[in-house]
Amino acid sequence: MVEGSSVEWGALIMLESGRQPLSLLGAYESVKKERWTRSPSWLSAVREEGRALFEKMGLPTRRQEEWKYTDVSALGRQEFSAPFPMHSAGRPLEESDLSRLLLSEDISPLRLVFVDGFYSHSLSRTGKFPDGVETGDLGSLLKEDHSMVEKHLASYAKPDENSFVALNSAFIEDGGWVYIPDGVRLTVPVHLVYLSTNGVGSHPRNVVVVGNGAAVTVIEEYIGDAGAVYFSNPVTEIRMGDGAEVEHYKIQRESEDAFHIAMIEVKQGEGSRFVSHNLGFGGRLTRNNIHSYLTGPGSSCMFNGLFMIGGTQHVDNHTLIHHGAPDCRSEEVYHGILDGRARGVFNGKIYVEREAQRTDSRQTSRSLMLSTDAAVDAKPQLEIFADDVKCTHGATVGQIDRDSLYYMRSRGISMDEARRMLTRGFARQITDRVKLDSLRQGLEQELTNKL
What we know:
Layout: H1 28-35, H2 41-57, H3 73-77, H4 95-99, E1 111-115, E2 118-125, E3 134-137, H5 138-144, H6 147-152, H7 163-170, E4 176-180, E5 190-196, E6 201-202, E7 205-210, E8 215-224, E9 231-232, E10 235-240, E11 245-253, E12 259-268, E13 273-280, E14 285-294, E15 300-309, E16 314-323, E17 329-338, E18 343-352, E19 359-369, E20 375-384, E21 389-398, H8 402-409, H9 415-431, H10 437-450
Parallel strand pairs: 1-5, 4-7, 5-8, 6-9, 7-10, 8-11, 9-12, 10-12, 11-13, 12-14, 13-15, 14-16, 15-17, 16-18, 17-19, 18-20, 19-21
Antiparallel strand pairs: 1-2, 3-4
Helix pairs in contact: 2-7, 8-9, 9-10
């Protein structure tokens, strides 16, 4: 078990009086002088590279194909305070503050909590695990110059291809660390909770390393109080050995005034199996990048996605499944539910290299429009260089089926209740794939509350 020092933050902290607000890269020099003077040389190099790349690339614009449907210029007009491990403003954050925001208290006995990107020992729950298993905060290991962290940190997510990954790399300081040695199948899910507070920009970096024949379930949950304006920019790197299995959940239930830009980068070994569940309900502007590289023969992955938004919320899901070896399989199913003037984007790419013969890949995107003012841009893509493959893709956008409404109305069900039932049924095509009972029940309650 890796544990960091006890950290307490103020709940829903406003900027301290007299403190100069800092935005995006503006806090780099001050944080470097205050906290990074004893960092190992390799980590300093990672940060400096991230800083230089972000200064060069800046924020992406809609002139770039990958950001054609998503405008992030509002981020450049916001001012965010740099997060600090100790904060003198506000009252201490208590268990009750966390409990009222969590999807469920019973997801896992192992819970690692990060407030504005920094580990909170007092809010976390730990336990005993098989020999060699490590779960805890990355920050403690960086101070120890942990050899496994040096090997895997910043080895998979590419800062030269994404300016937000570069920004995260510039501020690497804390996040979740999960290491499962060869042959160990951890039966307890690792629940990583990220609570953001008002006015802060945070950059959590998570690293998950799963050995040959090992297995783990990891849950990332992002939360924040209603009305809070903040910027969350997490990056998760996952390395899977041969025959490894990872079930990964990302649940985003943040403030509807928050900005959330995330990257998940996965490298899979031979015969490995990766399952992603991406479930989003909050945020003013949300962008999820999920990439999996099937580098070993016989590996497989499945991407399940659901987002439900309204008002003027914007959610952009960009996925990449890269088939780089023969005899691999992938499946992707994303559902979106939109109301009000919400805007959704689905851009999913299946890339098949020449040597990836006998690839079997399927991709589907479906969007349900509850309002005539909502809109979705769907762009499924196949890029295939092998000649022995089975690859399909498709996208549909529509409203609730009128025949189904008529059938239910003819049996005495009100129009509003019929719409709710059909919408819930559409969402459950994704939530029913969630294996953890407490998590699935929490998601169904969230859907009920939204409807």
